[in-house]
């Protein structure tokens, strides 16, 4: 089997990928950058299975009975949040910037998530007016670089997310290569057109949690206590990070696992930093419970969530909602088998493309090229995304009903079993068959 | 909440519930002068205000005073904490004393004048407008400044202008050290006249010899400018 002219030999250290990587670095003199998510293989959601109701539980009629999916984020502090984010489903669109994505893709996603009764998110690049118009509910993301940060945009938002980390590249700032810093993107970000934008990682006006607590109040004052304020964290030191986040007074925490994707990141970050979401969810829930903040602060999780059963597993482990990105882009047409010559020009093929960083997205999603962007029809794309979300929720509610739940938020760890040692250790869920949990019993059955 | 217009509205920060909202309502109702007594270094005073109108704080304020300002004039008689005027889009802020970290962070327009010194990270991520410091600034001033003018009449600390984009930094005093990709260039006579004009408009007289600090632009791009180079991964 050859790959870019290389053949995989017998060494597990000096694989063809490793050799090709060293050759590229020797030629370029810099680290590799690419889009998509980590190529590392971790224990995945496939290592957990549900235990449907048989003799000790009663299943719901899968095709007839209702299973509630309504989700409220930021409803735990009514004195501080007049308009919590109310969603029909426990899934919303994670933050992906205008710049990383083109205008038509942003509009299509806004339409799709709105049709599903959910929310989309601006991402780093400021609020795109077209996206605001297309989105019934829109979360405004405030990153350290504060591109296009504007009081009126904050007031137009349905929630505000302060980004403190991203699963794909925790501990670093945003990255947008010059091919995508178009005139429109440059204007929104106040950048010279065509620069390789490497954003800062630290916010300019707060450093620690105590300062952030004041900052959150500032945002509430500016928006008149209308909307919830989220913190987005990369999954790293989960227990402590989540506990400190709770102390800041935020309304929700978005925890992004290392499986989270990006339009561009150093490959050494993608494959070596942060922990998988499956290892983070239960710990995060426990941290919130330890502080007595369950119900007051919602936990949203993201990173590599592919389908409705993954959603259900996240909810069972303790998430109040999930945020998705890559699966929504794939629903929109990412990696679909069309425009094959353009995939070939990138040295890739449908199903294997991770070239979001180049701005030459064959299907017109992660690009600022007007000609490529025409390949996304916002109406058609929005319908595809809405249909995907509908199917995803059919899976989520379907499995919840088989387990005997009338509300997807009633799913719990006891509904799961692990099929691998690692998954059991990561989640505190007992191994299927033997009914014991791998690792220390620190979870105490929670 | 409705508020009738008065020539000058006096608010007591000790009775501070929803103080910012009351200021906005007063300006909407036609009040043009608001005086806030007893600020006692409280945080988040004068946040999210709009013009036209002037808000005066009799004393010192805490963090984020004038944050997200959208057209109001905000005058603080004494000193201010972190993030003064952060993300301001328009208007004017004047601080009579000193400012702490992150003054004018990510501001996009308007003018901030600080009569004393400023702490570190002054004008970090600034995206427009003018920030004038009569005294000195701390380390990392002008960090990743995108646009606008940071004018420092006194000295500047270490790492000045680190990773600048297209903003300009003007320093009349000593520069302890430049940040990555920052360089000192000779300003033109027209540029010096423009900066002195901005100072004169704020009542700052005197002839300063400014050093102009801009990006050398070596960090604007990765070394390889060949798009094909990005396909090797």
Give the SSE layout:
The complex is a heterodimer of chains A (446) and B (233).
Chain A: E1 2-3, E2 6-7, H1 16-28, E3 33-36, E4 48-50, E5 71-73, E6 85-87, E7 91-93, H2 103-115, E8 119-121, H3 129-134, E9 137-142, H4 151-156, E10 159-163, E11 175-176, H5 183-189, E12 197-198, H6 209-222, E13 229-234, H7 238-247, E14 252-256, E15 262-266, H8 267-270, H9 281-290, E16 298-302, H10 308-317, E17 321-324, H11 326-332, H12 340-345, H13 370-373, H14 378-403, E18 416-418, H15 421-427
Parallel strand pairs in A: 7-17, 8-9, 9-10, 10-13, 13-14, 14-16, 16-17
Antiparallel strand pairs in A: 1-2, 3-15, 4-18, 5-6, 11-12
Chain B: E1 9-12, H1 19-28, E2 33-37, E3 54-58, E4 70-76, E5 90-95, E6 111-114, E7 127-133, E8 147-152, E9 168-171, E10 182-185, H2 189-201, E11 211-215
Parallel strand pairs in B: 1-2, 2-3, 3-4, 4-5, 5-6, 6-7, 7-8, 8-9
Antiparallel strand pairs in B: 9-11, 10-11
Characteristic terms for this protein:
heterodimer, A: 446 residues, alpha/beta, TIM Barrel, eight-stranded parallel beta sheet, two-stranded antiparallel ribbon, 15 helices, 18 strands, 32% helix, B: 233 residues, mainly beta, 2 domains, eleven-stranded mixed beta sheet, 2 helices, 11 strands, 10% helix
Mean pLDDT rating of chain B: 94
What's the β-strand tally of chain A?
A: 18
Arithmetic mean pLDDT of chain A: 95
Supply the CATH class of chain A: Alpha Beta
> CATH superfamily of chain A, please?
Aldolase class I
Number of helical segments with 4 or more residues of chain A:
15
CATH architecture field of chain A? Alpha-Beta Barrel
Radius of gyration of chain B, rounded?
Answer: 19 Å
In the sheet with the most strands of chain B, the strands line up as 1-2-3-4-5-6-7-8-9-11-10
Low-pLDDT segments of chain A: none
Rough outline of chain B: globular
Class by alpha and beta content of chain A: alpha/beta
Number of domains of chain B: 2
Greatest interface and its participating residue counts: A-B, 48 and 48 residues
């Amino acid at each position: 089997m050859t790959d870019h002219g290389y053949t995989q030999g017998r060494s597990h250290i000096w694989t063809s990928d490793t050799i090709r990587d060293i050759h590229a670095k020797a030629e370029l003199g810099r680290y590799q950058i690419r889009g998509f998510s980590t190529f590392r293989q971790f224990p995945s959601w496939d290592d957990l299975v549900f235990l449907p109701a048989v003799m000790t539980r009663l299943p719901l009629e899968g095709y007839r009975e209702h299973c509630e999916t309504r989700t409220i984020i930021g409803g735990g502090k009514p004195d501080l949040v007049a308009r919590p984010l109310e969603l029909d489903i426990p899934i919303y669109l994670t933050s992906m910037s205008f710049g990383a994505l083109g205008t038509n893709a942003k509009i299509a996603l806004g339409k799709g998530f709105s049709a599903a009764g959910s929310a989309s998110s601006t991402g780093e690049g400021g609020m795109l007016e077209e996206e605001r118009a297309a989105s019934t509910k829109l979360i405004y993301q405030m990153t350290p670089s504060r591109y296009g940060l504007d009081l009126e945009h904050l007031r137009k938002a349905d929630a505000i997310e302060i980004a403190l980390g991203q699963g794909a590249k925790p501990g670093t700032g945003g990255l947008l290569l010059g091919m995508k810093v178009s005139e429109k993107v440059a204007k929104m970000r106040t950048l010279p057109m065509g620069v390789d934008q490497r954003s800062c990682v630290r916010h300019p006006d707060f450093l620690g949690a105590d300062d952030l607590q004041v900052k959150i109040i500032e945002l509430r004052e500016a928006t008149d206590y209308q909307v919830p304020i989220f913190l987005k964290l990369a999954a790293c030191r989960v227990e402590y990070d989540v506990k400190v986040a709770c102390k800041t007074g935020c309304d929700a925490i978005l925890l992004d696992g290392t499986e989270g994707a990006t339009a561009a990141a150093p490959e050494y970050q993608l494959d070596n930093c942060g922990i998988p979401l499956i290892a983070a969810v239960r710990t995060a829930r426990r941290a919130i419970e330890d502080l007595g903040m369950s119900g007051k602060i919602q936990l949203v999780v993201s990173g590599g969530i592919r389908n409705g059963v993954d959603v259900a597993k996240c909810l069972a482990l303790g998430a109040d909602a999930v945020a998705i990105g890559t699966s929504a882009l794939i629903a929109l047409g990412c990696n679909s088998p069309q425009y094959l010559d353009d995939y070939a020009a990138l040295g890739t093929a449908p199903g294997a493309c991770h070239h979001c960083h180049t701005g030459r997205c064959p299907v017109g999603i992660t690009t600022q090229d007007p000609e490529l962007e025409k390949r996304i029809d916002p109406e058609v794309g929005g319908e595809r995304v809405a249909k995907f979300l509908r199917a995803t929720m059919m899976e989520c509610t379907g499995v919840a009903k088989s387990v005997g739940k009338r509300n997807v938020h009633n799913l719990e760890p006891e509904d799961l079993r692990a099929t691998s040692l690692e998954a059991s250790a990561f989640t505190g869920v007992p191994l299927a068959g033997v009914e014991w949990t791998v690792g220390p019993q620190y979870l105490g059955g929670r | 909440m409705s508020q009738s217009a008065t020539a000058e509205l006096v608010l007591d920060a000790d009775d501070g519930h929803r103080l910012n909202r009351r200021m906005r309502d007063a300006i909407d109702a036609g009040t043009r002068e608001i005086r806030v007594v007893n600020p006692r270094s409280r945080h988040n005073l004068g946040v999210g205000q709009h013009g036209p109108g002037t808000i005066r704080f009799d004393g010192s304020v805490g963090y984020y005073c004038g944050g997200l300002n959208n057209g109001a004039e905000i005058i603080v008689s004494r000193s201010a904490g972190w993030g003064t005027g952060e993300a301001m889009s328009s208007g004017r802020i004047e601080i009579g004393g000193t400012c702490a970290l992150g003054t004018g962070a990510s501001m996009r327009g308007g003018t901030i004048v600080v009569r004393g010194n400023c702490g570190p990270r002054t004008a970090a991520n600034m995206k427009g407008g003018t920030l004038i410091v009569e005294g000195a600034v701390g380390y990392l001033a002008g960090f990743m400044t995108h646009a606008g003018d940071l004018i420092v009449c006194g000295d500047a600390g270490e790492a000045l202008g680190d990773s600048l984009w297209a903003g300009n930094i003007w320093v009349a005093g000593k520069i302890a050290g430049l940040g990555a990709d920052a360089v000192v260039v000779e300003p033109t006579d027209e540029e010096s006249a423009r900066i002195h004009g901005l100072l004169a408009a704020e009542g700052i007289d005197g002839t300063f010899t400014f050093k102009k600090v801009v990006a050398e632009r070596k960090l604007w791009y990765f070394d390889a400018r060949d798009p094909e180079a990005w396909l090797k991964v």
